[in-house]
Known about the structure:
By secondary structure, this protein is of the alpha/beta class. It has one domain (4-87, 121-197): Phosphoglycerate mutase-like (Rossmann fold, 3-Layer(aba) Sandwich). 26% of the residues lie in helices and 17% in strands. It has four helices and six strands, in the order βαβαβαβαββ. The protein has helices at 33-45, 60-73, 123-140, 152-162, and strands spanning 4-11, 51-56, 78-79, 145-150, 181-187, 190-197. The protein has a six-stranded mixed sheet with strand order 3-2-4-1-5-6, with helices on both faces. β5 (181-187) and β6 form a beta hairpin. The longest helix has 18 residues, at 123-140. The chain starts with a strand and ends in a 15-residue tail after the last strand.
Amino acid sequence: xxxxxxxxxxxxxxxxxxxxxxxxxxxxxxxxxxxxxxxxxxxxxxxxxxxxxxxxxxxxxxxxxxxxxxxxxxxxxxxxxxxxxxxxxxxxxxxxxxxxxxxxxxxxxxxxxxxxxxxxxxxxxxxxxxxxxxxxxxxxxxxxxxxxxxxxxxxxxxxxxxxxxxxxxxxxxxxxxxxxxxxxxxxxxxxxxxxxxxxxxxxxxxxxxxxx
Length: 212
């Protein structure tokens, strides 16, 4: 008989970011009040699930999203650096024309190749590190379910990789809302299903910043 193991990729909740910057891996970005409510709502979505392992990105917003799950299931949160947000040249800046960083010519050289992408961590590297993090979670929860709290771009890149789709994409077309859940179901080590749930749709104001 085969083991069915489920790994859920939970995106963190809304972040307090009044300046609207691309905060990326910068420290100190916490959940907003709505984000904290999203984290609790996500934990409630998992209430009847068989979660036996919990992993998180080291970023504050991810750890705060993992906290209600840790309390509900009485599980420790294992930090896995492979779940971290993608690296990005524009970290700490606003992105766009007008007052954004695109009006400054010194940044233009980072935009020559959207397929890699040239402005940040390569998609292939993101997919590989996320895959290895999921394998770790799958082994830790063999026959049960694991949750990995991560970020929009890494989760979406892994989903594209798992579904054998191209990795480069338009950021506005990602199906990975705040506190959403992308679920990978395995029979033994074979991926058999990818599913998506958005229990917090409509909650929060949104930051207007893609990614994170």
